[in-house]
Specification:
Residues 1-39 form the signal peptide. The protein is mainly beta. The chain has helices spanning 81-90, 131-134, and strands at 55-60, 72-78, 96-104, 108-116, 125-128, 139-142, 148-153, 156-160, 163-164, 177-181. A hairpin with a 2-residue loop joins strand 7 (148-153) and strand 8.
């Protein structure tokens, strides 16, 4: 897929984090209300996903250094793809589509589209799974030059290219971190 540059945005559909959070986990869990407003990311890992809001986005900063978690800048989940597209268009930091995480094999189920300010480089992005994704990530697809992936989990590790229709039995529903880079 092609990178999707964004410009001239104003966000009205979710609440951004007030302060930048260093080394915050990607997709940190917080209970989503039925209004569509999103809770701020926090180290407490309190964000969750719901079946009625299957289209999610997370915006991250590049990794500050090798093996450093990418900072979560914003996050939101929406009922429809159209609502998700509007939120992405409105988020100034969602410049480049980096990766899509899916709940089930073959990119099925709830998904999270991960955006960043720039395509992958040699350092890339270190994405830390929230408690929700640690027990659900089964497939992914990377874009924007993120041609390499390294996943770690409690049961083992795995090296992949830019996508995996299934992460395999060792990592299925057991991913803690994912590094993506050029």
């Amino acid at each position: 897929m092609t990178p999707q540059p964004r410009s001239n945005h104003s966000m009205t559909t979710y609440i951004r984090t007030g302060a930048r959070l260093a080394a915050v986990t990607l997709l940190t869990a917080g209970v989503l209300g039925s209004t569509g407003a999103q809770a701020s990311a926090s180290p407490a890992d309190t964000r969750t996903y719901s079946l009625d809001k299957r289209h999610c986005m997370t915006v991250v900063a590049p990794a500050a250094a090798e093996a450093t978690a990418s900072e979560v800048l914003s996050h939101g989940c929406y009922r429809t793809k159209k609502e998700l597209d509007r939120a992405v268009s409105a988020d100034r930091a969602a410049e480049v589509r980096l990766s899509v995480w899916a709940e089930h094999a073959n990119m099925a189920g709830i998904y999270d589209v991960i955006y960043g300010p720039a395509p992958c480089d040699g350092t890339g992005y270190w994405l830390t799974a929230s408690s929700w994704w640690k027990v659900r990530l089964s497939s992914f697809s990377n874009e924007s030059g993120c041609n390499n992936s390294f996943l770690t989990g409690d049961r083992g590790n795995g090296t992949f290219g830019s996508h995996a229709n299934w992460v395999g039995s060792t990592l299925d529903n057991a991913v803690n971190r994912m590094r993506i880079w050029r």
